[in-house]
Automatic annotation (TrEMBL):
Pfam families: LytTR (PF04397), Response_reg (PF00072). Keywords: DNA-binding, Phosphoprotein. This is LytTR family DNA-binding domain-containing protein. Residues 153-256 form the HTH LytTR-type domain. It comes from Actomonas aquatica. It comes from the Bacteria. GO terms for molecular function: DNA binding. The keyword Phosphoprotein applies. InterPro entries: CheY-like_superfamily, LytR-like, LytTR_DNA-bd_dom, Sig_transdc_resp-reg_receiver. Residues 124-149 are annotated as: Disordered. Residues 2-115 form the Response regulatory domain.
Length: 258
């Protein structure tokens, strides 16, 4: 099983990692220290099992699972120091609930319970970073571009809403029915297809570099060519995006950037 560990305390992650090392047929694919990163990694990697702490900054574990259940129902074992949220955890169909400090025997029992479960429903046919153009339903949701593009987006994170300035967005990456906004201040996850968001963003500023990524042209700093002839865009934060839409088109867009 591919396992994701989510806990805001490094010692707790280390202990769980060491206990899991003794278990057969497990691979830890990611560790996260906050709710937003957990949601992002879970959508991207689709692990078979998530050990999910309830008390985390940003979004708590309950909120993370609520958001995941909108897209795909993962197998989750909650880990927490408090018993009070257990009812909410099982209402979300968590596989088990480990109360800290838990023993090796209790962890092994939780894993045995997970392995007995029928595989959770998933979107295995959809790649982790799916092509939103492949979704036939997306066409019914897309209208002509608005007369004016929004300067701000309202992005929900748990029970709060964050205002994201579109000028601060460096790039956008598709993640199933969500998009990940990479901004100058951090990452935000928004429920939208890439095509829907592309229709809203200013076409003079934002450019579709590939089937699953959009770049802010103002953030482009370099274009690299690999030995195989493929291209990648380097942005102002040092990140890179694949460029499959054509170097000549990008050059034209940069020349006429306003």
């Amino acid at each position: 099983m591919k396992v994701l560990i989510a806990d805001d305390e490094a010692p707790a992650r280390q202990r769980l990692r060491s206990l899991l090392a003794a278990e057969p047929n497990l691979e830890i694919v990611a560790e996260c220290a906050d709710g937003t990163a957990t949601l992002e990694q879970a959508l991207a990697l689709r692990p078979d099992l998530i050990f999910l702490d309830i008390a985390m900054p940003g979004m708590d574990g309950i909120q993370v699972l609520e958001e995941l259940n909108r897209v795909w129902s993962p197998r989750v074992v909650f880990t927490t120091a408090h018993a009070e949220p257990a009812v909410a955890a099982f209402e979300l169909e968590a596989a088990d609930y480990l109360l800290k400090p838990y023993s090796r025997a209790r962890l092994t029992a939780a894993l045995a319970r997970v392995r007995r479960l029928v595989p959770a429903p998933s979107l295995d046919s959809t790649p982790p970073f799916a092509d939103p153009d492949a979704d036939p339903a997306a066409d019914t949701l897309v209208t002509s571009p608005p007369a004016t593009s929004p300067e701000r987006l309202l992005v929900k994170s748990g029970s709060r809403y964050h205002v994201v300035e579109t000028a601060d967005i460096l790039s956008v990456q598709a993640a199933a029915n969500y998009v990940v906004l990479h901004t100058t201040s951090g990452k935000h996850i928004m429920r939208s297809t890439l095509r829907q968001l592309e229709a809203d963003l200013c076409p003079r500023r934002f450019y579709r570099t590939s089937r699953s990524t959009i770049a802010n042209l103002h953030a482009v700093r370099e274009v690299k060519t690999s030995s195989s002839g493929t291209h990648a865009i380097i942005l102002s934060d040092g990140s890179d995006l694949p460029l499959t839409s054509g170097l000549r088109e990008l050059e034209h867009r940069l020349r006429h950037l306003s």
